[in-house]
Amino acid sequence: MEQTKEARSYLKFVRISPRKVKIVLDLIRGKDVKVARGILKNTPKAACEHLIKLLDRAVADADNNFGMDTDRLYVSECFVTPGMTLKRMMPRGKGSADRILKRTSHITLAVKEKE
Fold it and tell me: CA–CA separation, 65 vs 1, rounded Å?
């Protein structure tokens, strides 16, 4: 049985919360690359800018490294995992302080060729 090729791209330490990225990834999972790109272009979310670049990079890798046909590609897998969290302090009343958590994300996106 022949293994199907897959082009994966990673984006690490993106300064955006994984929760915000997951909402957009759920929109494009399993879609054709052209459809996914259209969805990302027309969705008003901060994560879309990063995901368009990542999708383009995965398609370019599939074309150049694996010789796949770009017209038959679809988003086979996409997920986000939390990266490191930057901890900051914000002064509050009576000399105390609150902790601010600035979250980062590791995003993985894979494209495959349709059978």
Answer: 22
